[in-house]
Amino acid sequence: MFEVKNIEDTNLAENPVVAQMSKYNHEQLLFCNDNDTGLKAIIAVHNTTLGPALGGTRMWKYNNELEALNDVLRLSRGMTYKNSISGLNLGGGKAVIIGDSRTMKSEALFRRFGKFVNSLAGKYITAEDVGINPLDMTYVGMETEHVVGLPGKSGDPSPVTAYGTYVGMKACAKEQFGSDSLTDKVVAVQGVGHVGEYLVKSLTEEGAKVYISDIHEPSLKRVSEKYGATVVGLDEIYDLDMDIYAPCALGATVNDSTLSRLKCSIIAGAANNQLKQEDVHGIAVMEQGMIYAPDFTLNAGGVINCYSEVKGLSSEWAMNKAEEIYTTIQNIVKRSKDENVPTYQIANKMAEERISAIGKVKLPL
């Protein structure tokens, strides 16, 4: 994927792979290629201080390999923080498969990917993410035991992810509006895939006014008809008069362009890496008086569900654990206000504090 014509002339400091790994302090990258099946993938292991790196596999039609690399590095770092702040004994990792999930899937491709996962000998545990379904993971599971979310086990993590997002959203409402009731609140849900649809269900059942957008027209139509949500255009969603903006598709939708248009009090959704630049847009959100629920905290229900499978815990345990996201978000927002620091920085600090503390526990006597 990354061609070096003359390794003797290559300055490692200028190598995009090494530079990016150093930027996010990753432990390991595995580049996967198989011409026979068409597999091109990257597995990123960010940190294993707390335990094996767990994180889903995403299949996406990236514009180029560097875009895929940046995505997998950011996502895997987010998994480290997500697992830590959720109190799970797991490290952070992620994988991306480069390709169109609607046209390029095959049993052979996923089984070949499973062999690459297996080559890491348990250092990385995979699960489903964007563009991946339980059947795909079944094929991966034919070649490795280091996979979770399989049918008949903990299964689809989307309901738990959506529930954690929902209760975290309510915690934000409590802080911003004085009540955690979402009745009559206007919520714009961007992306109505598995997680987004479950979130829409909870919101409409509570009596929120819900707007939805998505690149997939059939999903929009079905969710709209099933739950009474109002469909808006992909770009139109940023100009709505709303109480809560809930990004549940891909990341970086909170950026220079959208922040000047968003008319909301809360940003709380299930997407990863919602802030295009944490150190820029996290501060801008705070300065505009919005509460931003750090994404890796809010959407931790999925990994909680996977952890329950790894440890043989019940689905009830997973839902109860996801409910703790309410209190975690409350604590983050309170510390943010007390210290006058953006919420993303508080969440990062809380995750890093646990990793540092447990890292000391694991030192040899």
Strand content: 5-15%
The major beta sheet can be summarized as: 6 strands, mixed
Query: Can you name the CATH architecture of the largest domain?
Result: 3-Layer(aba) Sandwich
Structural class: alpha/beta
Anisotropy-based shape:
globular
Integer-rounded radius of gyration: 20 Å
Highest CATH level, the class of the largest domain: Alpha Beta
For the record, give the distance between the C-alpha atoms at the N and C termini, rounded to a whole number.
43 Å
Helix content: 40-55%
Average per-residue pLDDT, rounded, comes to 92
What does this structure look like?
The protein is an alpha/beta fold and 365 residues long. It has two domains: 7-18 and 26-77 and 91-141, Leucine Dehydrogenase, chain A, domain 1 (Rossmann fold), CATH 3.40.50; 158-353, NAD(P)-binding Rossmann-like Domain (Rossmann fold), CATH 3.40.50.720. It has helices at residues 16-24, 65-85, 107-118, 134-141, 158-177, 194-206, 217-227, 256-259, 278-287, 295-298, 301-310, 315-323, 325-339, 343-361; strands spanning 28-34, 39-47, 53-54, 57-60, 91-98, 124-125, 186-190, 209-213, 230-231, 244-247, 266-267, 291-292. Strands 1, 2, 3, 4, 5 and 6 form a six-stranded mixed sheet that branches. A six-stranded parallel sheet has the order 9-8-7-10-11-12, sandwiched between helices. Strand 7, helix 6 and strand 8 form a beta-alpha-beta unit. The longest helix is centred in the first third of the chain and has 21 residues, at 65-85.
